[in-house]
UniProtKB/TrEMBL annotation:
<dbReference type="GO" id="GO:0004722">
    <property type="term" value="F:protein serine/threonine phosphatase activity"/>
</dbReference>
<feature type="compositionally biased region" description="Polar residues">
    <location>
        <begin position="236"/>
        <end position="249"/>
    </location>
</feature>
<dbReference type="InterPro" id="IPR036457">
    <property type="entry name" value="PPM-type-like_dom_sf"/>
</dbReference>
<protein>
    <recommendedName>
        <fullName>PPM-type phosphatase domain-containing protein</fullName>
    </recommendedName>
</protein>
<feature type="domain" description="PPM-type phosphatase">
    <location>
        <begin position="1"/>
        <end position="219"/>
    </location>
</feature>
<dbReference type="Pfam" id="PF00481">
    <property type="entry name" value="PP2C"/>
</dbReference>
<feature type="compositionally biased region" description="Low complexity">
    <location>
        <begin position="250"/>
        <end position="259"/>
    </location>
</feature>
<feature type="signal peptide">
    <location>
        <begin position="1"/>
        <end position="16"/>
    </location>
</feature>
<keyword id="KW-0732">Signal</keyword>
<dbReference type="InterPro" id="IPR015655">
    <property type="entry name" value="PP2C"/>
</dbReference>
<feature type="compositionally biased region" description="Gly residues">
    <location>
        <begin position="260"/>
        <end position="276"/>
    </location>
</feature>
<dbReference type="InterPro" id="IPR001932">
    <property type="entry name" value="PPM-type_phosphatase-like_dom"/>
</dbReference>
<feature type="region of interest" description="Disordered">
    <location>
        <begin position="227"/>
        <end position="291"/>
    </location>
</feature>
Amino acid sequence: MLLCLVAISGHGGARAAEYVKQNLFSNLISHPKFISDTKSAIADAYNHTDSEFLKSENTQNRDAGSTASTAILVGDRLLVANVGDSRAVICRGGNAIAVSRDHKPDQTDERQRIEDAGGFVMWAGTWRVGGVLAVSRAFGDRLLKQYVVADPEIQEEVVDSSLEFLILASDGLWDVVTNEEAVSMTKPIEDPEQAARRLMQEAYQRGSADNITCVVVRFLDTANQDHQGGLKKNHLSSVSQGEASNSHPGGTSQSHQGGVSHGQGGANKGHQGGGASSRPLGAANSSSSSG
């Protein structure tokens, strides 16, 4: 089974977010080492997507950027890659576990990297690179590219019977909902679409000032036995996504082949203002889906 999901949050306009949405997944699956060395392929795909977007921005006067957090399921391996401040959280054995790190300019190692490159971090309502950008890694952001890199941090998890579900969401959720609260709210809701909507609505009700994108993936530990050994197997049950702005907590929903469904509403986000776009990039098992 192959599944790739992404939560994207743009700033300075929607151009970077749209470009990442259209190109990151195709750059990844076309990489010659996608199966043999998936982590290397992910890193290359992130940086290639970033460099190609920057080339396309030569005629633009206004800087644009985007964060992206991806979850890639290859067989029984779940690889989470992150650039920026979206976040992936899993529920394993009933516990909330963050499997990505938010990239903020005030983190010791991020600040050191920025300063070593000749940049600076200062307080301007929040900690910002050059007093401008509230994340330390992102796609695009041409004028700050020397300091704001698109190198992903990648973490791998084994998909086994203890893995219950994954929450992949933008900072519009995590600004107002803790990892533990998100997992606690999701646990009793079997339908991942309803779980994603529940999380979105909670963030909206708590006054999240950012756009809210949420993907919920549930895993099933089936009792199906094969002809050889009768081993339990883990299967993806379904995927749900919701996206909302702070003025629109919901959206429409639709179903696709391949066990993928999503709900999507409007979005308007940015660290300095702008737009956002996020959706499942694609899924494939016995059939394929492109969202």
